[in-house]
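Inverse folding, one chain.
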């Protein structure tokens, strides 16, 4: 989802893009990474690959580690060797959710589940392997081609399917098209370190997101069942609130991200991004 949005955005502004599938590039294989980067000699590498099955990671930590740590480290090292800017995506789940407000770049991570722990290790691997690395934390990402709950919610409601939406988990929704545009900006900025990138606004709950989808799409709100996070009994722990705010984007003069409700409306209308350039 994010890779496709990023490739589409970069092409739309005239970049030459090499977008590789997992079959074409196994980031956990250091030799494979080096040979591919040597062949293409990119100015920038934007890593959109990840193991993102939060519950699945509890049962297959090796796969999560391979993609989220080993793969990130391989890309960071190879980017340094060939002089490419390196951007990699991390997650709001590196925080434990105890803070009811926003988490900023300087706040101390405390990942809970296997997925979250591998993503945090991946952040550190990137920064340690390549001092030029740019780590972008985001969360609640949805968009064209996405298979997660936020991405398919409109289709389910459009088809008259009932959905369960959690009322007591909070985050900052992020439209993949807007994230893609900011990833490209950060690659050009070439300022290392951690950046938080989500759509702006006060954030919302899954229930709030579902209600907004209903209102914008004219769907039947009675299809939404409000539930608590504990009722779902999911295997992996998740932060109750993982809202992200950014001080660094403002520090470097980047425009504020579009409001999450504006972004949701654009996504439902098939508009891929509000470009920042």
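Residues assigned per position:
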């Amino acid at each position: 989802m994010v890779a496709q949005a990023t490739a589409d955005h970069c092409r739309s502004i005239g970049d030459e893009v090499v977008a590789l599938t997992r079959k074409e590039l196994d980031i956990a294989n250091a030799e494979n990474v080096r040979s591919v980067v040597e062949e293409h000699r990119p100015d920038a590498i934007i890593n959109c690959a990840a193991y993102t099955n939060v519950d699945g990671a509890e049962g297959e930590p090796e796969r999560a580690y391979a993609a989220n740590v080993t793969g990130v480290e391989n890309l960071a090292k190879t980017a340094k060797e060939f002089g490419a800017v390196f951007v990699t995506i991390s997650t709001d789940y590196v925080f434990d959710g105890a803070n009811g407000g926003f988490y900023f770049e300087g706040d101390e991570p405390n990942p809970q589940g296997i997925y979250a722990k591998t993503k945090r290790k991946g952040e550190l691997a990137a920064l340690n392997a390549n001092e030029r690395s740019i780590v972008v934390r985001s969360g609640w990402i949805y968009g064209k081609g996405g298979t997660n709950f936020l991405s398919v919610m409109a289709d389910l409601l459009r088809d008259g399917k009932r959905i369960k939406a959690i009322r007591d988990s909070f985050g900052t929704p992020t439209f993949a098209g807007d994230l893609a545009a900011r990833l490209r900006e950060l690659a050009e900025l070439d300022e290392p370190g951690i950046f938080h990138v989500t759509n702006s606004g006060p954030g919302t709950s899954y229930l709030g997101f579902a209600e907004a989808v209903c209102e914008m799409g004219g769907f039947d709100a009675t299809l939404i069942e409000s539930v608590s996070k504990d009722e779902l009994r999911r295997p992996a722990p998740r932060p109750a609130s993982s809202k992200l705010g950014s001080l660094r984007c403002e520090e470097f003069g980047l425009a504020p991200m579009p409001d999450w409700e504006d972004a949701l409306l654009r996504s439902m209308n098939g508009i891929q991004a509000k470009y920042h350039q």
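Strands lie at 44-47, 85-91, 134-138, 141-142, 163-166, 170-171, 174-175, 193-196, 204-205, 224-227. The domain at 2-147+170-203+241-268 is CATH 3.40.50.720 (Rossmann fold).
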